[in-house]
Fold:
Amino acid sequence: MTHALIVIDVQNDFCPGGALAVPDGDAIVPGINAIMRDFDAVILTQDWHPAGHSSFASSHEGKAPFDTVEMPYGPQVLWPDHCVQGSHGAAFHDRLATDSADLVLRKGHDPAIDSYSAFFENDQETPTGLHGYLQLRGLGTLTLVGLATDFCVGFSAVDAARLGYDVTVRQDLCRGIDLDGSLGAALERMAQAGVQIV
Structure:
């Protein structure tokens, strides 16, 4: 089985100065670029929301960013408007070596449902297509890096392990939000799923 690097959501809105900035989110970019050549394939994921997405606090009267609401698929954290399709915030960080990518996977484009994981939307049923791509390419070992450890990286890693991949998360090449203890909970969830955290 060959080895893929999955780079999760290294986009302007998740870096300092962005709408949903992860502390030191841009600090991981040089390290990610440096390891790309070590993998058989490089896949970049990109949060890609339509304006007015249901996960935006601005779409819910009386709600503020980081409030939680109940959606048909379960609890949903409400976020500041971020990674709106075609915006500067949705673009990859300008120092990320995007030319090395075999695939760019856009997620979160359904206005009615968020998509933390690179594999499934938040209903845990609707696939993004990544699993099929990896299977067809024979890519069975995955290393995940990117933003944010406790949301899109963590959910992607757990789903990948559940699908039978050999999964490693490079914690030095991720950064977390740590919303009310979410970072510790995500690390525990990944470890329980069999994800190697290095």
Summary: Strands lie at 2-8, 41-47, 68-71, 74-77, 103-107, 139-147, 166-175, 196-197. The mean pLDDT is 97.
